[in-house]
Specification:
mainly alpha; about 65% helix; about 0% strand; Inner membrane protein YgaP-like transmembrane domain-containing protein; membrane; transmembrane
Length: about 70
């Protein structure tokens, strides 16, 4: 029996959307002239969206009790 630290709680369409939006935010943060701290904050939030998209787990959705229907 394998144990997991988390269960995927994002459907495939939402994982794809989070990955695309996250990449757009990261690229946009470095293309638009912004204050350096804001640029890095946007890049970090975009990177977290990309990570959630790849992993398929969202901590906020888990706290709200969201689960995938099997």
């Amino acid at each position: 029996m394998s144990t997991f630290f988390f269960q995927k709680n994002l459907p495939v369409w939402e994982r794809s959307l989070r990955t695309i939006v996250g990449l757009a935010v990261v690229v946009g943060a470095f293309l638009v002239p912004l204050e350096p701290w804001l640029k890095w904050a946007l890049a970090a939030s975009g990177a977290s969206f990309v990570a959630m998209g790849f992993i398929g787990f969202c901590p906020m959705c888990a706290m709200a009790g969201r689960k995938l229907k099997s």
